[in-house]
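Budget justification, computational time. The allocation requested in the original proposal was used primarily to generate structure tokens for proteins on the priority list. As evidence of use, we reproduce two of the resulting records. The first is shown immediately below.
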Amino acid sequence: MADLSTKIIQLLDSQILNESYASNFYLALSYWCDDQGLKGCKSFFLRQSEEERIHMLKIYEYMSEMGVHPTTPAIEQPPMNYTKIKEVFEKVFEQERSVTKAIHEIVRVSTEENDYSTLNFMQWYISEQREEEAVIRDIIDKIKVIGDGGQSLYYIDKEVDKLNLQIQAAEGGEEQA
């Protein structure tokens, strides 16, 4: 017998799809960046892809712990063609905002249903989304300052690579704690 309502199960299954899609989206972006010679951006998006996969797996595990067999979704092909790095990061920001909205909906329904287990579980996702949106907003701000043409791409790539290394170092510190 599942300890989750039908509505929560549907929302969590939908969030598995969101996280799966985000992982594939970032993977596709990493190789678009590779084609553009943006190795720092490629590394950033590869790390993001793996992070989204971990987010998905956490939901699978939570649902299993709650006595529910999660649904493994079919994943839509992410967009592959971009003209500028600014466009890439703007699409990423839209993607993250969409995920945040879906997480907030799970929290809203969990609150309405007095489902404190799911509410507690989703708190980590709320914090994670706030951080992810802030990182992407920071990158977009840097692109606005640096520009996104010609030589500017070199500096953008270096800034994103530096940011990626900082995030990796911080994540390494969290894992050891």
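The second record produced under the same allocation is shown here.
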Amino acid sequence: MKKKILDRYSRTTDNKVIIDITAGKVEDLYNDLDKHAPFRKKELDQDLVEYLIDSVSEIGKEEFVIQFRFAVLTDTRLISRIKTSIHNYFQYLKVLELRDLARMARSSFILFSLGILFLFMSVWTNQKIAGHDGVITHVFAEGITVAAWVSLWSALTNFLINWVPHHQQFKMYERISRAEISFHETTKSNL
């Protein structure tokens, strides 16, 4: 299946996958809501961002190049801004993902700490009521034990299971932000 997906992409002479993007003009790469803003203050078009993310997800660990094709090749100043826009936007997404990772680690630490506290309270409570036959005290002690294990389990699953997708997103955004970008003029044979 992976081979069929990779067959849909062209390759460079040094065997890098080409993520090909064709646009009429540079303005097509930016959000329509920012029509009157200068290019340096415009946000990338969300369809472009999603296409890049989907394409990099599809190709996996393959080396890639982002190739833009325009009807009329634009000047070097705008080409430089496009490269900067892509770099900055995906660096920004990387920072957001890092913030989510930090938030998740913090909540895992808090849950783990509460679990350890409840576990110590459970052991202490069970030792204190060892000779007593009260139903309420035994229910309370068991409740603390259950709370301890639920908190510990939640902390571990939150960190061990949820960490991987966030880390993968972080790495993908890093790859896109540092990707090689090339520009070409479209011809009738390229369409």
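A brief technical remark on that second record: The chain has two domains: 2-94+179-185, 96-170.
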